[in-house]
Design goal:
72% of the residues lie in helices and 0% in strands. It has 275 residues and is mainly alpha-helical. The two termini are 20 Å apart.
Length: 275
């Protein structure tokens, strides 16, 4: 006869259990941090090298598209978006792999499985913090002090992290049953990258002679609003979406987040059977 241990915490997102197991989150986060750069020669330098290479590539592409902007302006803007996108994409990827990567401990003892995805976010935040601090220092020397909107940046980052965590939770749950997810997700992330205003700003996209339905679809992409809000905090210029699209995006993100979290919690007790 099989015994199934379930949680008595019925709160949304199991907040009480997460607080009770905060020491486990700390332990798993430190473990992931040590493993990520173990036996690497450059260590944490990779958190700078990856966005730097992408910034050079897409910064050069942006010069071909936005010839009216200066070289420094193009590269500063592209670098900021690349660093931020690196955070969001790594959170989605790491969270989606968190259950399969920790399959060895899923069946040993009981703990709220939501801790595994949450702990995987730490290393992405550390990589982002290192690259972002260097970017801010460079931006001050090249452009000057950021505008007052910089005070809104923590809210935008938290909002984006919550959305990325929710997406990752959906794929993490699906990957336990369907291992095809780890092959599918990189393609989806690549498509998402080219659909956001990285080297083609929103203002340039809207100036193109394309059907209005494509512009509506573009604005309905939650990542477009998140990226433009991030750029607004750094440079003080907002390119859209308009307010009505922002409301739609907010509602969409909340619905998708609730559904993905519920999906994760619903199948949590059966993870060990598939792992």
């Amino acid at each position: 006869m099989k015994t199934v241990i379930t949680s008595e915490d019925k709160s949304f997102f199991r907040l009480n259990e997460i607080i009770a197991y905060k020491s486990l989150i700390k332990h798993l986060s430190l473990r992931d941090l040590k493993v990520r750069y173990k036996q690497t020669w450059l260590g944490f330098s990779w958190s700078i090298i990856r966005p730097l290479v992408n910034s050079i590539i897409f910064g050069a592409l942006s010069l071909l598209i936005n010839k009216e902007n200066s070289i420094s302006s193009n590269f500063i803007t592209v670098t900021s978006v690349v660093i931020f996108w690196q955070l969001l994409s790594s959170v989605i990827t790491d969270v989606s792999n968190s259950l399969v990567a920790n399959s060895n401990i899923l069946t040993k003892v009981y703990f709220p499985k939501i801790i595994l995805p949450i702990s995987s976010i730490t290393i992405s935040l550390i990589d982002f913090s290192i690259a972002f601090v260097i970017f801010i220092i460079t931006n001050i020397f090249v452009v000057g002090l950021p505008p007052w909107q910089i005070v809104l940046l923590p809210l935008i980052i938290i909002y984006a992290l919550f959305f990325s965590l929710s997406i990752g939770l959906f794929f993490a749950t699906a990957s336990v049953k369907f291992r095809d997810v780890k092959f599918l997700l990189p393609f989806l992330m690549q498509i998402a990258f080219y659909s956001i205003p990285v080297f083609i700003p929103t203002s340039k996209f809207l100036s193109l002679n394309i059907p209005s339905i494509l512009k509506d679809i573009y604005f309905l992409n939650p990542f477009v609003g998140i990226i433009n809000a991030f750029k607004y905090c750094l440079f003080g210029v907002y390119e859209g979406p308009p307010f009505n699209y922002l409301v739609i995006n907010l509602v969409t993100i909340l619905i998708l987040s609730i559904l993905s979290i519920r999906y994760f919690l619903k199948f949590e007790k059966s993870f060990a059977d598939y792992i």
